[in-house]
Amino acid sequence: MKTGTTLVTTLFALASFPLLAQQPPPYSQPSRPATQQNPPGAEPAAGPQAPAIEMSSVNGELVSKLDSKTAKTGDSVVVQTKSSVKTADGTEIPKGSKLVGHVLAAKPSEAGDNSQVALQFDHIELKGGQSVPIHSQIQSITPAGGAASASASGAMSGPPAGSSSNPSTGSAAAGPPQSTGAGSGAAAEKTAPAAGTVVARTGNIAIATTSVPGVLLANNAPGQQDPRMAAASSILLGAKQDIELDGGTQMVLGVATAGAGTQ
């Protein structure tokens, strides 16, 4: 079967994100007025743009293995920074700091089904022991030993949702779903979309490829906020397979201190 055809089929099967639908909204999340409710099965209506939050790209690597077969809600997930970064508000994040998060929800692949892991990174542990609350979004994922880079191509490695930045970046997420190449000949059968390619959208969520084969990344589209992402930094999606990220897997996260931007 063509790679593009398989990917598109999988994306639409994942589009509803049933795990997050089971999670209660944050206590501060306003209820949607009855007049805005959608018919059963419909995608959430496009809401107002998210407040502008300028996120700084932080390179790091996963400290321990993350596996959708064994991940449980509440499990700790830690990414250790590989370089020093200063956030937009001037907060220094030294090399070796820890971006600390947890699993919001996880669904393993069973009999070739799709898998999902929803993550939230909510604070940084600095070397001196200080804990700083943050907003975050995973921008890219590269296998252990790969070359993760904050400048990787594609919308998901560009400015995160709600960031204030050059509108020329992240344009793939703002446009219509890109073709995956299904039916384009022999090359389409063997070549998957490049890492960072936005291959589908559902509501205000953009779904992009990563450098890890079969693992996709779901984030708010730039400048948008989908209610299914209210509590999540990002959602990892396994295309008819389990998500297995080894310790040392490289990640780029967009990070802003929790007080940054307009609330």
Task: Please specify the SSE layout and strand pairing.
Layout: H1 3-14, H2 18-21, E1 56-62, E2 66-67, E3 76-81, E4 85-86, E5 92-93, E6 98-107, E7 115-125, E8 131-142, H3 171-174, H4 186-190, E9 198-202, E10 205-209, E11 215-220, E12 234-238, E13 244-245, E14 250-257
Antiparallel strand pairs: 1-3, 1-14, 2-13, 3-6, 4-5, 6-7, 7-8, 7-12, 8-14, 9-10, 10-11, 11-12
Can you put this structure into words, describing what you see?
The protein is mostly beta strands and 263 residues long. It has one domain (3-20, 49-257). The protein is 10% helix and 32% strand. The chain contains four helices and 14 strands. The protein has helices spanning 3-14, 18-21, 171-174, 186-190; strands at 56-62, 66-67, 76-81, 85-86, 92-93, 98-107, 115-125, 131-142, 198-202, 205-209, 215-220, 234-238, 244-245, 250-257. Strands 1-3-6-7-8-14 form a six-stranded antiparallel β-barrel. It is globular, with a radius of gyration of 18 Å. Mean pLDDT is 73; it is low at 1-16, 18-42, 44-48 and 149-189.
